[in-house]
Amino acid sequence: MRKSILSLSLLSASLMSCSTVLNHLPYVYTIDVNQGNMIDQTMIDQLRPNMTKRQVLYIMGSPMLVDYFHQNRWDYIYSSKKGGEDPEKKAVSIFFENDQVKGIQGDLRPSAIPIAKPSVDKVVDVPKRDLEKTLWETMTGWFGYDDNHDDVKKEVETVKPTAVTP
Cα separation of 164 and 166, whole Å? Predict the structure, then answer.
């Protein structure tokens, strides 16, 4: 009985340690796992020398790692593992000097040709509105207190009460 328990535990330990067997089991769903900062070539192409840290933050987002001992180096790390596939890893380090970009190092390199990003903004001409009444005049008109109340005042003034004599 001890031999069977020992052999069973050795078999289970060997299967657990072999990740290739467990990762490629048929009909087993594995989720996609994305970790870190999403980095792509278009983001890297927008980086230029002498950009400020604030401009880099706008393009790349917050760095994944800022070393306390190397404040002038920002590391962007991205790992993507799609179900059943080998993980894809990208890492980019940006070096600063006097709060300006001095160098980029890593898996992705900026292109030498400047990228002209097409504008997605659209200009819409809105015609000027001719308002005959203000909002307040419109709202009071709903309840019968519009400009016609001036006419009512005039009619009241023209009818004078007659004095009643006893």
Answer: 7
From residue 118, give the alpha-carbon distance in Å to each of 49, 74, 111, 121.
22, 28, 17, 9
Q: Does residue 34 lie in a domain region?
A: yes
Question: Which among 96, 98, 100, 93 is positioned nearest to 60, based on CA atoms?
Answer: 93
> Residue 11 has what pLDDT?
61
- Domain of residue 60, CATH code: 3.30.1450
Whether the model pTM is above 0.90: no
Q: Is 104 helix (H, G, I), strand (E, B) or coil?
A: strand
Residues 6+ away with beta carbon under 8 Å from 72:
95, 96, 97
Task: Express each pLDDT in 75-102 by its tens digit.
Answer: 999 999 887 778 889 999 999 999 999 9
Task: Please state the domain count of the chain.
Answer: 1
Residue 14 lies in a domain: no
* DSSP H/E element including 73: strand 73-81
The dihedral through the CA atoms of 39, 45, 50, 55 has a sign that is negative
Would residue 111 count as lying in a domain? no
